Amino acid sequence: MTSPDVPSPPATSPAVLLVALGRQLDGWINGSLEEVGLSLRLLGALGHLAREPGLSYTELARRARVTTQSMHATVAALIEAGAVAPAGPGRGRRALLDLTPRGRRLLATGQAVIAGIDAELRGLGSLPADRDLFGLLGAVTGRTGGPSEAGRADEGSA
After folding, report:
1. 78 CB-side CA count, 13 A
2. Residue numbers in the chain where pLDDT is lower than 50
3. Yes or no: is domain 14-155 CATH 3.40.50.720?
4. Which of 56, 73, 122, 158 is deepest in the core (most CB within 10 A)?
């Protein structure tokens, strides 16, 4: 019996559970990618450049839904790692970016990490439950305007 002064526990909210799950998955994914010298942000940029070589910083930032300044920092890290190189002149013209062979190897490594996490997630439940979960996630993603382009890095040059 509850007293009128003590609120009852709130009902479980699917929206709050999805946010909590998202935070846990973000930590798991970025922790796993860090072991191979990547982050989801870096992997996303590599994926975009694999799908569409020669993007400018601005185009890449738009696809990743971040500021151009933030993308400059991301690309600087990728250039330092030898994963990205300018594809054309930058002074006075748009700086175009391309993957290097090292960038393609990093992308493949990152995709393998994501595939391993996906396999583990799929192994947690039965196939019908997976279909329900992935259907729900797809519906929510469509309702909220789609995933960040960075979140689709695993679609890179597969």
Report:
1. 33
2. 92, 148-158
3. no
4. 56
